Amino acid sequence: MARVLITGASSGIGHALTLAYQARGEQVIACGRNAEKLAALGELANVDTLQFDVTDKSQVLATVAQMPSLDVVILNAGDCEYIDDVMHFDSTLFERVIKTNLISIGYCLEAWASKLSAGGQLVFVSSSAQFLPFPRAQAYGASKAGLSYLAKVMQIELQQHAIGVSLVHPGFVATPLTDKNTFDMPFKVTAQQAAQHIIDGVEKRQSEIAFPGGFIFILKLLKALPLSWWRAIALRMQS
Predict the structure, then answer these.
(1) How many Å apart are CA 70 and CA 4, to the nearest integer?
(2) Are the C-beta atoms of residues 28 and 18 closer than 8 Å to each other?
(3) Does the predicted model carry a pTM greater than 0.85?
(4) Which of 3, 33, 89, 203 makes a 20 to 30 Å CA pair with 232?
(5) Is the confidence at residue 236, as pLDDT, over 90?
């Protein structure tokens, strides 16, 4: 029985991961802010819950005293907000998203990296948005690009400690976050499908877990083109 810690477990991909790992008989530590949803998860066999805000360093570090050794840590908690008026740049929004999606990861690493057992797996849930600069995604895209860079460095650093690192690049996933989007979301998958992709990739100790395949192929192809070409496409997307 592996011991799996999941942040952002009260909704979306994190919730689906919690249920999937629990159904496999693993011991899950489900972390989140929503007390009601965590209470429901806590009624399941093999699921323990921790309620805290990942953006509050003191709350994250307070979990260390009660944290056992861990086999898998999935850093999944995140948020998405868009800057709609670039000429009136919302620095408060920018700071909020960067702190949630990137700075808080540092708090989690400080708290739990030393709790990972040799042979364990550290999983960063980033986004396929980091491949290309998308309009309105200044905060979200920057935070996820930074997270992907961090994960790649940790892949190098943790190898000597026999700890694997998986970097997850999902496409569009049906979650409460994407439900707010008003634009087309091609190749969108369910949270349950996303969770299975992640679990399969973690089991194989893949360094990158990217899905759905067709969407990721298109993004990487566009990334390989001259940046001026993508800028022209992005401008047409705005019109």
Answers:
(1) 6
(2) yes
(3) yes
(4) 89
(5) no
